[in-house]
Amino acid sequence: MKPKKITYMMIAVLGVLLFAFGCVGLMMEETRSEAKVNQTEKTTVEYSKYPDVDLVTDISEKEKYNMAIHYPHFTNKKLNAEIEAYIADTKKSFLKSVDENREFIKNYAASLYVTLNIYQAAPDTYSIVFSEESYVAGANGMQKAKVFMVDLKKETFIPQTTILKDSKENREQLYTLLREAFRSTDYESVLFEDDLKEWVLLKDHQFAKVYLTEKAVVFKFDKYEVTAGVAGMPEISIPIDKMQSMLTDEWKEKLKVAPPKEEGKVPPQEPVKEEGKPNDHKTPGGKRAALTFDDGPHPKYTLKILELLDQYHAKATFFMLGNRVDFYPEIARKVAEKGHELGNHTWNHKDLSTINLQEGIREIEKTNAIIKKTTGRPATVFRPPYGAINEQVQTATNSPAVLWTVDTLDWKSHNPDKILAIVKENVRDGSIILMHDIHETSAEAVELILKYLDAEGYDVVPVSELL
Fold first, then answer.
1. How far is 207 from 113, CA to CA, in rounded Å?
2. What is the mean predicted confidence (pLDDT) over 392-420?
3. Is residue 151 within 8 Å of 158, Cβ to Cβ?
4. β-strands 53-61, 458-460: how paired?
């Protein structure tokens, strides 16, 4: 029997409906996948050691790009508005570049890091120094600096032109000082003296990247501005006494009232007596595992983790960022006082495999210095950010590079039960467990993990005992 015309119509309608449902299903699946990929976007505000200055951390992890941005938050709305406008413009420019180069971003995500350092120049007067690094496509990233001088008492930003007296004689003297300062550093071989002279003598120069500390006038340069790219973003510090004749009377007075600090090295301290091994009551030769924490210290969650480690007589290793030690020195000291192992995780969490050797060495050495200065103890181990390791990274440090064998993915799941499940499934005698002491859920998971490891007969030891 031949099919009737209505039968063909029903089959056609059914086909259209099935096709439509299929498209909707695919769109829903793509939406779910995209939501899964774009799941990490978090902004936190924490106090810092500087009065009336909090620290904002803005993290975004997408399929095509990652952003980690740090900036200050003041009590004054006008000050915040200008800082936030700078951050918004930086994000906008980066995302535009990502969009324009989307077809070239295949094997890795583009990245934007905005970090900052804060220096107190005088009472209520701070230098806010941003370092911006972005990698979108190609071998070389972009590096730029931005400086804000702020007077918290007057609740206003300070133009650098009010700090330096501008005259032909002062410009020529400044060029001489900068040239001699460059020649006394590792930058000497990559300095373009003609470019430096042009920079100093630039008409209507605003000196926007000049800032003050208690001891020096600091000149910060963008990558390629006066040096070859291998120098990164060089900084040249000229002591205040050498700049006296170039400072305005107002700033001479301000800098004199800043409390003097003694120059020189950190005074030697008595070595910290090592405490006994954790869980000494357990049978010698038992199972051991190391808990390691990256990206801290954190003013709240690191302290919580220290309490939990005390409860279980456990000793951990804290791989600290230098800029976080600078912001939270009292937390870093507490970690050391509790007898935990101190590790270096670089200053700004840069991927050392993507930057030049000299810059990588500075990231590590600067962090070693502030850990030793703050805690009185040296960092004894090193972990490269992202676990990115190559021959260049190995050259940059004399400390052993320590990775991990169990990745809890605590930064991703933010779920204590899931974090514990990963540990249960993967921990073995000699395991090195990776966590982060900057998340509330990670601190909650530590209690579960310590309880489990104790029940399973593990000693929790510093990572160097397993190397």
1. 24
2. 88
3. yes
4. unpaired
How far separated are the first and last CA of the chain, in Å rounded?
Answer: 81
Closest CA to 148 of 179, 114, 178: 114
* Alpha-carbon distances, residue 383 vs 129, 131, 344, 398, 400 (angstroms): 26, 22, 6, 12, 8
Contact 134, 112 (CB under 8 A): yes
Rounded CA-CA distance 341/292 in Å is 9
Neighbours of 178 (CB within 10 A): 21
Mean pLDDT of the region 19-37: 47
The number of residues in the chain equals 467
Can you list the positions of beta strands (E) in 328-447?
Answer: 341-344, 381-382, 406-407, 431-436
Q: Is the whole model's pTM more than 0.85, yes or no? A: no
Taking the C-alpha atoms of residue 67 and residue 42, their distance in angstroms, rounded to an integer, is 11
The Cα 190–Cα 197 span in angstroms is 15
What count of other Cβ atoms lies within 10 Å of the Cβ of residue 360? Answer: 23
Structure tokens, 429: 């005698």
* Per-residue model confidence as pLDDT tens digits over 94-108: 999 999 888 877 777
Q: Are 114 and 89 in contact (CB under 8 A)?
A: no
CA distance 97 to 141: 12
Q: Tell me if the bond preceding 297 is cis, omega within 30° of 0.
A: yes
Tokens 């049978």 found at: 283
Q: Identify the bridge partners of residue 43 per DSSP, sorted by sequence position.
A: 58
- Which positions are annotated as active-site residues? 294, 436
Q: Which residues pair with 143 in a beta bridge?
A: 133
Using a 10 angstrom Cβ sphere, with 0-12 exposed, 13-18 middle and 19 or more buried, the burial of residue 258 is: middle
Q: Do the Cβ atoms of 196 and 226 come closer than 8 Å?
A: yes
Which tens digit of pLDDT belongs to each residue from 333-355?
A: 999 999 999 999 999 888 887 77
Asked whether 328 and 48 are in contact (CB, 8 A), the reply is yes
Phi, psi of 458, deg, nearest 5? -90, 140
Q: Which domains does the chain have, with CATH numbers?
A: 40-117+130-136 (no CATH), 161-257 (3.90.640.20), 287-466 (3.20.20.370)
Position 458, amino acid: Y
